[in-house]
Amino acid sequence: MIPTDWLGPQEWQAVRLSLRVAGVATLVSLPFAIGVAWLLARRRFPGHGLLSGIVHLPLILPPVVTGYLLLVTFGTQGPVGSMLKPLGIVFAFRWTGAALACGIMGFPLMVRAIRLGFEAVDPRLEQAAATLGAPRPWIFLTVTLPLILPAILAGATLGFAKAMGEFGATITFVSNIPGQTQTLPSAIYALLQTPSGESAALRLVAVSVVIAMGAVLVSEWLARRMKGRG
Amino acid sequence: MLEVAFRHRFPGLALDVAFEAPSGITALFGPSGCGKSTAINAIAGLLRPDQGRIALDGRVLFADSTNLTPQARRIGCVFQDARLFPHMTVEANLRYPSRWRRGAARDFDRIIGMLALEPLLQRRPDTLSGGERQRAAIGRALLSDPALLVMDEPLAALDEARKAEIMPWLERLRDEIRLPILYVSHSVAEVLRLATTVVLMRQGRVLHSGPLTRILADPELAPQLGAREAGALISATVEGREADGMIRVATAGGPMLLPDLDLPQGQALRLRILAHEVILAREAPQGLSALNVLPVTVARVDGGLIQLSFGNERMLAQVTPRSVKALELLPGTQCHAIVKSVSVLPS
């Protein structure tokens, strides 16, 4: 058994919350990232450059600005937030908001990795599948997706790592409420603000390093396994 | 019957392609960059031509208001680079079309057997040799239950040994499966061995199309296949064996003799008679070692290439302009063709 008492309950809460936020952010944004990556890699349409620019915005804007824009848009008074509120979907100052912020901050990284995957797939393989009678959605599922799985995995790992470490946009959008929106980075930040918090902060830093390394190792192991099969 | 007529404009190349492909193997022949691959992409539905009409057995695949998807065209494609799915086994590749083209699923064992794919089924495409890969690709195309098989330089990426390995499979395909095949190639050897009909292409246009035997015996068109290759291709049937072992064959122009070959009676052959292996004489020659001396009539004179009619067959003789004058070779002239050597191609 791993001893659990070397972290206080509040610290454990931050670790669990961070894992949940990063996991949800990655899983929910992944299908969108695949869709946008496909559009950018395979389609030419008016607004192609604009879409690419918008997707990359979170990468180049200061995270605080992204967080503030989220607050303005998805806050309870914001245009989108006020529309979603009657449906029971609230982002502001909830863990769901942290997941939204982390998802958006990680989105460009995921799209970039997956887009490279799409660009590396030989479209002539898909043409061959079409001449064999397979409808396009089936070709996407049976030829394209399996061939870009390593890229999807790389994108998901990047997105997850980004989500685990996201700080600026999250703290701006959903603040730093212990048990609600206090993720690992914001817990470390809060601990460093208190005189006695340094040793607890150091332990959380160690947890961060272990999770990040673990994510990379798992993703590399999966990629190797898939390569072995494919 | 495949009917093709389309125009398409690329930067730097304007295509105006029109030909018909009856059953058998139709070779689309021409140098690289003449538009052969574009033509087959248009036929397979992988490229939309600017205008035209493409129909297969009366079914319109492409016209002004029609543009069937590749899925709906039922054209099996074998590409130069095989294009097997790298993440699947050979068996999964071969079974890929069966979900959508159920018609061919019952042929699975027969096609596996014909192409000897059984030992490869569990292998991955990247562990196959080039020849094995092409064989698997041919099998996969056949299992898509096609109404036409299109092969885009299927041997071009292979070395001579691999080509020799694949050729017999293509011949079996031609002879065993009653399927029209459009075969793109820039290799004279492949066309001679496989094709029944030839479409000669140059710079986006069709120079000529027709039966291979006609083109080979045409002094104007034969050089398009390569000057050294001018000559006739004649169909023959083995009649019997002479006392000394020579083989007697029947052709549309009369009997001919071949050296002792292990050929059963009734075997259909293609005889290749190169123009520079034929000597002409006005008088019946006496005391000659050559066995095949055929009475012929000059049909056409084109420089030093003389087209000769020989019963219902045509052949070519390569002579010097001086001989043309000395022998007074004019259309209608009766003379004797001395055939020095004949090569035998399986049919």
Automatic annotation (TrEMBL), chain A:
Membrane topology: Multi-pass membrane protein
Pfam families the UniProt entry points to: BPD_transp_1 (PF00528)
Protein name: Molybdenum transport system permease
Regions crossing the membrane: 20-41, 53-75, 95-118, 138-161, 200-223
Superkingdom of the source species: Bacteria
Free-text function comment from the UniProt entry: Part of the binding-protein-dependent transport system for molybdenum; probably responsible for the translocation of the substrate across the membrane.
Ranges where the ABC transmembrane type-1 domain occurs: 15-217
Main localization of the protein described in the UniProt heading: membrane
Keyword Transmembrane helix in annotation: yes
Keyword Transcription carried by entry: no
Keywords in alphabetical order: Cell inner membrane, Cell membrane, Membrane, Molybdenum, Transmembrane, Transmembrane helix, Transport
Family the entry assigns: Belongs to the binding-protein-dependent transport system permease family. CysTW subfamily.
GO cellular component labels: plasma membrane
GO molecular function: molybdate ion transmembrane transporter activity
Subcellular location: Cell inner membrane; Cell membrane
